[in-house]
Amino acid sequence: MAAKRGIGSLAQRKLMVLIDLDETLAAFEKHFMFKFREKYPNEPYIPVEKRNTFYIADQYDKLNFTDDSVRFELKKIYRSEYFFRDLPEIDGGCEAVKEMAEMEGVEVFICSSPLFQYKYSAPEKYEWVEKHLGPDWINRLILTRDKTMINGDILIDDKVHITGAMNSPSWKHVVFTASNNQNVKVKGEKLRLDNWTDGTWRTMIEDFKKRI
Amino acid sequence: MAAKRGIGSLAQRKLMVLIDLDETLAAFEKHFMFKFREKYPNEPYIPVEKRNTFYIADQYDKLNFTDDSVRFELKKIYRSEYFFRDLPEIDGGCEAVKEMAEMEGVEVFICSSPLFQYKYSAPEKYEWVEKHLGPDWINRLILTRDKTMINGDILIDDKVHITGAMNSPSWKHVVFTASNNQNVKVKGEKLRLDNWTDGTWRTMIEDFKKRI
C-alpha cells in the first residue's frame, strides 16, 4: 500500500513551467525602438541588437540628443496606452508555449511584472495573452512584481538577476537570451535558452521532466 | 561552521502571509448589494448577512424578480467600471495588514483573483491597493486566478474551496469569515479568522511564526 501511494504521488507530479512575457514572448525592445523612432525621427537611437542594459533608460540616457528633453520622455513611451497591447511576438514563442502546454506532465503559467505605473500595463498584459495565446490563458497569467513568490520548477525569463522576498525561490532560472543579456555571463545553476525556433526548448523541457 | 549556516538560515526565514482582497479586505458583498438596490430599487434583494453561496448569482437567481431580465443583469454590476475601485473596506482589515507587515519576521503579500472579464477588475485592484494600503503595496499585489501557484505559509481567504494546478499548495488556508461561508464547516487543517477587529489575528500570526 505504501508503494501504491508513492506511485500515485509520482504520477500526479507535473513539471511547472513559468514563462515571462516582455522580451521572452513579447518583443518589448523592438516595439520601443519603433515607437521612439516614430516620435523622434531626428534623434539618435539604439538598434535592438545593440541594447545592452536591462533598463532602457540606462543606455538611452548616454545618447547625445539634439533636444535634451527627449531623455525625460523615454518612459512615457512604454507607459502610454496601447504600448503593451501592441507588442509584437518574439519569433516562435507563442507556438512553443501552446505546444509545451499540451505536453504530458507539463503545466505552463505566464508570469509577468506590470509596471509600477500599472494603469495600462496590467490590463494590457491580459489583453496580450488573450489575443496571442487564447482566452483560456487568462487563467494562466500571474501578475506579480516579485517572481520569487511564484511556485514552479522553471522560470524562463530574460532578466538575469531576479530577487525578491524569498531567498530561495522554488524555480530554476532559465535565462531567455535577449539583446539586454547577450553579453552577460550566466552564472551558477542558471541555464540559457537562446530562442523558441530551433527546438532546443523541447529537449530542455524533457530533461527537466526527468529530473522532478 | 555547519551550525553557523543553520542559524543563518533560520534567521532569514520569514513567515510569508498571503491575504485575499474581495470579502477579506474589500467589502464586495456590501457594495454589490448597494449597487443592486440603487439600480433595481423595486426588486427583491439579499441582505449581506443572508448571503450564503460563494457566487452571488447562485443565490440571487432564486429570487422572484418583478422584471425577470434582472437575473441576467447581475454580473454586469460587478463587471462595470469602478465597481472594484469603489469597494469599501472590511472593518479593520487595512490597519491589520499594515501592522502585520511591520511585525518582525513577517512578509505580507496581497493575493487576488481578477475576474475573467479582467478589463476593469485587474487595474482597479491595483488602484484599490494603492489607495487603501499605499503605493508601496503595488509591489506586494499578486494577481492570479490560481492561488495554489503562489508561495506562502498562510493564505487568509474567505473562499473555502481553493483548488488549482498544485495539488499541495505551500500555504495553510485560514478561512476569513464572511457571510458566504458562515454556515460552512471548515474541515481538515484549515483554521478560521472571524474578523480583523478583535486582535485574534495577532495571536494567530505569532503562533504561525513559532511553527516555521
Automatic annotation (TrEMBL), chains A, B:
Tell me the GO molecular function terms: 5'-nucleotidase activity
A GO BP term, please?
A: pyrimidine deoxyribonucleotide catabolic process
EC number per UniProt: 3.1.3.5
Q: What class of enzyme is it?
A: hydrolase
Q: Does the keyword Hydrolase apply?
A: yes
Signal sequence segment: none
- Output the Gene Ontology cellular-component terms: mitochondrion
Pfam families the record matches: NT5C (PF06941)
Among Gene3D superfamilies, the record links this protein to: Deoxyribonucleotidase, domain 2, HAD superfamily/HAD-like
> Which SUPFAM superfamilies does the entry link to?
HAD-like
Query: Keywords assigned by UniProt?
Result: Hydrolase
Active site (record annotation): D20, D22
Q: Which PANTHER family match?
A: 5'(3')-DEOXYRIBONUCLEOTIDASE
Q: Could you tell me what this protein is called?
A: E3.1.3.5
